[in-house]
Each structure stands twice: as structure tokens, then as C-alpha cells.
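re: ur question from the group chat, yeah i did fold both. here u go
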Amino acid sequence: MRSFLDRTFSGCFALSFAASVTGATIEVTDASIVGATTWTANNTYILSGLVFVENGESLTIEPGTVIKGKPGEGANASALVVARGGKIFAEGTADAPIIFTAKADDVSDVEDFDKNDRGFWGGLIVLGRSTLNSPTASGTPITDNIEGIDRNEPRGVFGGNDEADDSGVIRYVSIRHGGTLIGADNEINGLTLGAVGSGTTIEFVEVFANFDDGIEFFGGTVNTKWLAVAFCGDDSFDYDQGFRGKGQFWFTIQDNDSGDAGEHDGDVDDDTKTPLSRPEIYNATFIGAGAESETTRRAFNIRDNAGALYHNSIFTDFGGCGIDVQDDSAGRVAAGDLDFRNNIWWAFGDDSEPSEIANGNALPLFTEGDRNNMIVDPQLRGISRTFDGVLDPRPRATSPALSGTVSVSNDPFFAVVDYKGAFGDVNWASSWTALGASGYITQDGAGVPTLPVTEVPPPVLSVAASAGGGEVDLSFMTVAGASYQIQVSTDLNDWADFGEPIAGDGTVVAMTFGTTLTAAFARVIAQ
């Protein structure tokens, strides 16, 4: 808890949310969710123990709803767990975010909990059926038991072979003051994502003051945008077990209690398993605990044969080095699976040379090729770790972050923007977050970013007649993230779908039309 007697303001703050405090307080147990369940904003929901959304069940949470977790450790920990086959639809708004927090936290009182109040409940856990690379001893497909749940609990299993698995929607959700202990040196992450698939939507999510990691990806292929992790007690963004999702607009700010901004691991077997952990991230802003802080934590600790692709990002103000690639991941640099391009690095202790910012295994990222990793002041508008409204991670008008961006990959998931880092002119992490409600981050520039729509290029078709007579081969290159529908017609006027939609993955789709097909024409529609 904190006192505001010595608080200094530098502007006005939007401190109220749309959540109602006039409804009922409802205690939720594991037996409370049956079939399709809805939690409404006029009530406050209290999680008592582990509450599961099981296979075939769904939980819809209205904008502005507040969910609180009871205190407790080990078997008495409280958390919301979306099991494999369950779905969560937590769709808040910038004006009415969905808040997960501790039972003791009065969200209407900004003088209540602050960044030092951690570990008061569990967190949000989502488990899916996407792929893992380990532990291979589990069989085929590979599965595992999520940390934080008893290994004998079947609803704690995650993993499978459906990379497009859909666990629902999580949007404008703030997860606060969690990370309770579940065992010796074992805590629950703020947001745990176990083998979550690319059919799941996760964007505008904040983890604030969690005792353990902010967000951890255990394998899977989920894609995320607009993530904010603030003042957590361990790493900000952690992944392992073959995570291969995409991300854009990731933000973290740390303090002396924090771990590394990015702890990136490969597998849990022997550092040889595939698919490799190899996410692709654009437009991150990672702010450490301070270049002159007491901590020696790094921006990145990459190990266990992990890969990582970061572009158009800003990493600044860490007491430790910028990037530490362990020997067991050094081969990924040479292979191109661990690559950093067009990023800004600044203020790592007193160091300003590549050899001081990067260890020997990571040094080629600064000295070889055309990677354009610059050591230059990003000129952010304000860095502060106290509730004074000074924190403003947007670049100033003269910032080098506003020029020289590298083109995003040929993937419609990524938005094309003209700045490095997670912020342009719009401060998207202020109006709906604990950072904003408690007065850490400025309200200047607060808003919802408007992004250009990336058009999916039309597919180029290749058609060939078979020598055997009557069969026609059709093939085309797909774009990852796009959807394709083959259609057929007899007269070029009336078209009918042929087969199911095809999810693009960057590979060639080939199929053969046999003599039984009466249509004379075929086309492919890209969406």
C-alpha cells in the first residue's frame, strides 16, 4: 500500500472506469461455470481457488467487469484457467476495460495498491491445442502440464497439433497484483499462454505488478498486439517450448525487483528439439530499471537453442547489458533464426560500445551485415517509475525512432507504421491501464491507435494439364495469416465454393481437379 501525501502531479489523469460498484459480489468456484456463462459489469466476481472453463464451455465477460482473486498459496491459490477446448470472450474497451485483480484491491481508490503490491492472487491461464517441441516423452502430439496446476489435474494439460486453435478473445484486459506462490520458487505468471493457437485474439492486455513473469508463452502460435507489462517481479516477456507466434507493439517498464525484459528459451529437453522457438516481433519498447539502477538485469537473455526476430524496436535504460546469447543459442545467430534488425539500443549502465552492450555470441548482430542496430538516444518523452505522470514512452519529434524503419514481413498481421518502438503519436497504454489509473503514465496523447489496413496480394495461379488426360493441376503461393477460397463456375457468372477455406502459411497449395468436376472455370479468392 502507499501514501499519496507527497505525491506530485504534472497534469491531469483519467482515473475512473466504467465498472459499476453497485451490483452484487459473487463468489465463483470451480463448479460455477457450466455451459455458456456470462459475467456482467454490474457485479464483482471473486475467484475462490482454481476456476476452470472446461472443454466445451465458454465464459463471456462484459466490458467494465471486475474479477478479483482470493489470497492463498499452493493448493489454495486462486486463478482463472481456460482449459483446452474451453473459450473465453473477455472483450473490454478503452473506456471500460476488464480488470483482474486482488480481492483486497479497491479499484475505485487510486490511493490503494501500487507497483510494489504483488502476489496477492494467481493470474489468468489459457491452455490450447497448438504445437509444442517438448517434452517429447509425452508422446504424439506433444503435451505438457502447465506450471501452477497439479500434474494429476487433466484440465491442466496443454498442447496438440492444431496451430490455428481458437481459445477466444482477450482484449482491453488489465491483470494486476497477481503471481502468488504455488511452490518453492514457483509462482503463477500474470498471463500464462500454454500452446495457444493463432485463432485466438489477444490485444490490449496489461500485466501490472505481478510477482513472477508478466506474460509467458509455453509453445504455441498465438499472435498478439498492444501488450504492456509493468513492474513485475521477474521477466516481462518469457517464452519456451517452441513458441512461434507473431507480436507487434510490445511494451515493458521495469524496476529494481524485475528480471530480464525478455527471457527466451528453446525447449525443456536437450536444446535440440523442433520446431524452434522463433517468434517474430515488430515495434517493441523495452525500458529497464534504469541505467544507473542497482540491478544488472538485461534486455534479453536468450538460451536453450532459442531463436528470436526483433525489428523496428527500442531497448533502453537497463543496468545490465543489452543482449546475452548463451552458448547453447549461438548457432541460431549464424543460422538466421536469431536476428535483430533496425533497432535502437541506448543506456546500458555506462556502456555505449557494441562489445559492452552485447556478449560475444550476440556481437555479430551489431558488427555484421546490414542489420542497422543503432546505439543512439531514442529521445523518449519521459521515463519515470513513480506515480508522477512523467512516464511517456512516445518518441519526441526529433527522435531517430521516427525514421528509417524496415519494411514489415509479407504478412497481413503486421501493421505498417512509420516509427520504431511500440508508440507513435498515440499513447495507447494510458486510459484503460493500472499504469494510467494510478498516475504512472501520462494521459497526454491518450487514445486508440488507427492503423492502415494491409491488403492481401491476389494469388498468382499456376495451372497445368496432366499428360494422362482430363486432370488439371492448380497451385498457388499463400501468404501467412490470409485465407483463401477456391471457387468454380460453369459460365463465369455464378461461382460456388469448392472445398473449405484454406489458411495461408507462406507455402504453396497444390490440388488436382479430376474428370468428375463439371465446372469449366476455377478461381481463388484471397481474404
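okk and heres the other one u asked abt
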Amino acid sequence: MASIYRPTYKKNGKTVKVRKWYIRYRDYDGQLKTVPGFTDKGATQQLAAKLERESSMIQAGLLSPAARFKDESLDEHLLAFEQSLHAKQVSEGQVSLVLTRCRKLLDLCKVRRLAELRGESIAKVLAELRANKGDKQGISAQTSNHYLRAIKQLTRWLCLEKRIGEDPLIRLEMLNVQVDRRHDRRALSDAELTLLLTTAASGADYLGFSGEDRRMLYLVASATGLRASELASLTPESISLDRSPPTVMVRAAYSKRRREDELPLSEELRNELQVWLAGKPARTPLWPGDWAKYRYAGKLLKFDLQEAGIPYKDANGRYADFHALLHTFITNLGRSGVSLTTAQKLARHSTPVLTAARYTHIDLAEQKKAVDCLPLQRPLQREGVTMGHLEAKPDTPEVLPEETGKKEKPLKTRGFLKKTQRRDRDSNPGYPCGYAGFQDRCIKPLCHLSGRCLRCLTDVKGLAFGCQVFAGGFAGCFRCENFSGVPAANPLLAILAGLCAGRFVQHNIPETVYQLKS
């Protein structure tokens, strides 16, 4: 049963009641709710009865929970959505950005009530924003995805709060940004980074930063991977040079992951910071001002790039903005041979795919160095084996089983068919090597490599049961008992590699002793 009351407060030692009545009732989930009513008691009683009736109908399944919000305006929903973002400790800038994008799309769609929100109208508006209008270029696919991501965040929250019955945008998908890239970043080379630091150190003051301060800003960014907002939050107390190893601490309020991050510093950066921090006052930002909030970091870098003669946009259309210093940091980790898992942790990415695909840049010259390390022939000790394929020498005499002293296994026949009898159009021709099994196939899985039988050097059609196995770049053959390059402690490595590659159909192991031939 709903109840109404007027709260009281103390004034000059007396108990005073407020003018407005309040309603206390249990909603359809059984939770106790308190909502404001009116100054008129009768109107408040009618509202309490309405709320209680709606809760009973929702419990009975006669009314949707979203019916409670049918009379609320869109601004009231957006205000509640904003409060929920603040409750989750989302940064002020991110909250403002999400709400601005949501309001722009809703205004262009002319949506005033939630019932008017349609996925078709959102898709149409985004297509119009991407379209070129005369000389003015439309938004990119990446920007379109940002707008769609913001409005879908709103509709998902509305569904979770049961303000709407179902998500009207659930069928809208993100666009492929690879076909419409407009601001790809690049990593600075070692020569460009050295020239940039030297030019900034000797440069004049710009936007309130001295040349040495700008140099240290670029150096710390390229050696730690910190973002502009994280660098702006650093104080002398954030850097611990006396620890082993030296570290820099980023507070959770400014960290990208919204948690406290501690990153190691290199010894070279430690020596640079030790000299530079000597004249910095305590408990004050190392780079003071609102330069990160108003995105002046890119202007600082662009100024010094121009002074150094380094192109801001290269021939491939890639940009060297301030965020490119993070690309430089991760790319240098890859050039130094750091594992992908370590690079992901240092970059503080949620997935290694983002680290490898987006932030690691390997140019053509580095790819050329990689392929130059490959030998023309693999270091196999068996003569006649090149690049993992077995090649027969034309002058090699045929060695019959009776000449080797090995016991010949009896041939297996299938049913009434003899070895010489074959069905017409048989897709599995028999191999004349003497090791016949089901349908006269060779029972040695690795006997037929590269479509050639080692027994009789006869070309065959297809690999059939013969498989090629690589173990660290080396081939192994059961027929010849040659496992060159396979570790002696694990002679089954070739078999396991073939199983992982999914190439084995038959896995019988011959009853021979595995010996590594030198």
C-alpha cells in the first residue's frame, strides 16, 4: 500500500514540515521507492494510487515496465543517462563528448520522445553526414562509428533500466574503417626522433613551454607511451627515480584504463629526468596548464616538426601528431625484439591485436631486412632436400627392399580386387612403392612428399595419405628415418606439427627405431 507524507526539518528549535508531499511505495521489483508528489494532498494521493496500480499491472504481466516512462521527455532521459555516467566515474570530457553526439543525432532525426526513435532514421542521418556536399567533405567512417557507438550506448542503457522494451538500434552495425582512412598515424624513425629532440631543445618558447620542457615532453612520451592527459597529470612525486627499477605512476583519474598504472623507466630516461627534475617545484605539474584539455599537444609537436624540417604528413598520407609518439614507442618495442605480450602490457591495451595491427609499423626496409635473413636453402643435412620438399635425383639408382636387408611387409588386398585390378575413375590410385594399405595406398604417412614416391620416384596425383610435416622449418620422413633438424629429445615433434597443421589423415608409426642421422 502506498503512503504519502511530508518530511520535517528543524528551524529555530521547532519542527517544521515541508510544503510538498512525498510518496513511498514498492515498485514491481519489490523495491521501496520514494518519489516527490505535489503540494496538494489529493493530487498526491491520486499519483500514489496510479503508481501502485502500474506496479501491480507490471507484476501481473499486463503492462510493460517501459510504460512508467512514456510521459517523460527526452531531456529527462538524457539527464538520467548523464548521471549514470558520472556514477561510473567516467571522465567529464568523455561524458560531454558522448552526450553531444547523442543530442546531435537525436536533433537531426527530430526525435522528441523515445517512441519516435528508429534505427532506420539513425542510419539515414549517418549516411547524410558521410555524404560530400559540394566542396565540403563528409565525416569519415571512423567518425560515423563514433556517433553510432555513442547513441547505441544510450539505447543499451535505456534497455537495462527498462525505460524501453527493446533496443531499436540493435541491428545497426559498425562500418569498415579500413576503406575510409583519413588520419592514419606513423611512427617516427630514429633519425627523425633525434632531430626533433635536438631542435626542440634549442628552440624558442612556444605556447608557454620552453624548448627544454618541450624536449622532455616528447622524450617521456616516446619512451613511456603515456598519453597527453596522463603527461599533464604528472608531478615530481609521480616519478620514483630511486627505486629499482625506476617507475612513473599515473593516477586512476587520468589513466586511460581508469586505474592506477605504474610503468618502468629506462636507465637513459632516468638519467635525463634526474637532471631535468632538479629545478622543478614539488606538488606541481611538470608541464602546467590546460594544454592537454584544449589539445595543444599537437600544436606543440607540429611547431617543432616544422622547425626541424620533418614532414607532418608523409608521402603515404600518414600523420605525425602527438599520438604518433605512442605509435613510435610501440614500434620501437617491436624493433627491439620485445614480445607481443610485453608490448601489450606496456601499451596498456586490452588486446594484442590492437597493439600489433594498429600501433606497430613495419616499413618496407625492415621487411627487406627480415627476408634477407632467410637462406635460399634450409640447413638440412640430407642431400636432395631443399625448402622442406624432397626432390629425387635423376641419377639415383632404385634401391629395392631385398637389397637393403629389410623385411618386406606383405601387401594388403581389399576384398576380391587384386593389386593390379582398379576401379575405373578411382580418385585414389595405388602407389607402386610396395607399402600398400587400404585401396592400395601407402601406409607410410610421410612416404610421399611433394607428390613423389621415394621408393620408385614415380610421380603421383595428389598427396593422398602422404603428408608433408614441418618442425621448426625442417622436414621429417618415416620411410628414410631422416629427422634432420628435429631435437633428439623429442623425435615425435614432426608428427605433432603435422597434427596441429591438420594434414594427417592416417597416423600409423612404423615399428622402427627413430635415429637422427648426422
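fwiw on the second one: Residues 428 and 464 are 7 Å apart (CA to CA). Residues 379-393, 413-426, 429-437, 442-518 have pLDDT under 50 and may be disordered. idk if thats what u expected
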